[in-house]
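[09:14] KT: can someone run the structure on this one? pasting the chain below
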Amino acid sequence: MGPVVRFAATPAGRVAYTVTGSGPPLLCLAGWVSHLALMAENPQHERFFDGLARSRTVIRYDKIGCGLSDRSRTDFSLDVELATVRALTAHLGLDRFALFGSCEGGQVAAAYAAAHPDAVSALIVYGSCARGGDLAPPAVRASVLDLIRAHWGLGSRVLTDIWLPAAPPPLTAMFARMQRAAADAATAAALLEMFYGCDVTALLPAIRVPTLVAHRRDSRAVPFERGRELASLIPGAQLAAFPGRMQPIYAEEPGAALAALLPFLGSAGSLPGPLTAREFQVADLIADGHTNPEIARRLGISARTVDAHVEHVRTKLGVRARTQIAVWARRPA
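[09:31] RB: done, structure tokens below
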């Protein structure tokens, strides 16, 4: 059973989103097309995001026109994408959060960080570029768009081959099916055309939040040089290179990606302060199912002191419920 899907109103329609994990919020912007329900069926995809959710409150959504969000869309522009982020974060009451954007979502995340530095604690851009027009020559871009519009089944298979070269047949079949289910041919072409036409070059020097740019060294979809250039245009950005050819961050060695992303998020200051030894004890006893009075008796301290420790743990972990503390305490080391 996949995560619970909820909906929020935006100027362009209702956006479908999920929330998993606990801790400081991390808003994830998908690339070209997505489908929350079908992507949850991919074990590699879920393992990667489960890894993030061990220490983050991970928020994912389908952009307007895709997946489980409202499908009716006529305005395919960066402004609509930015308005969606603003509406969703306002709906969730997020004053400050980290942003993680993949591919086209990386451009949107970068533009949002440039415009809202006080709201963004850290920025991660994966597999993206400054100018979508650099992804292929004009004739190639036009041919790909024509193919999608003329024969979406064939177009989805061609794009899968670009994104997942030499992947096992079950994975390529799943990915192609997800693309076709995520959007109809006209919307898929319009969204890809938006990616091709998006240019955030002028916005990148204005980014003033800690930034990590990550990229596959041998990606066929977005060449590594495009990611290197993007990182060079953001002041103080770090560049992380992952081995492999498959574009999705979860498709090859997701553990290596998590090993780069999680320490960066921590060093960027979005993680809560460390728990004290006593707070660790309290969290561990909560995970064992003990009430506050029981914890007080076991530790030989007052119930009021335990109450204070529990509040400190909640604040440092960025959680509200005792069950969230228990999940954190029993997470894999």
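[09:33] KT: thanks! The CA atoms of residues 149 and 185 lie 5 Å apart.
[09:34] RB: yep, looked fine to me
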